[in-house]
Amino acid sequence: MPEKILIIEDEEKIARFIELELTHEGYEIEKSYNGREGLEMAEKGHFDLLLLDIMLPELNGLEVLRRIRKTSEIPIIMLTARDAVTDKVSGLDMGADDYITKPFAIEELLARIRVALKRKKNMTKESATLDAGKLVLDKNAHSVTFDGNPIELTNREFLLLEILLENKSIVLSRDTLLEKVWGYDYMGETNVVDVYIYYLRNKLDAVSPEKIIETVRGVGYIIK
Ligand code: CA
Question: With a threshold of 0.70, does the pTM exceed it?
Answer without folding.
Answer: no
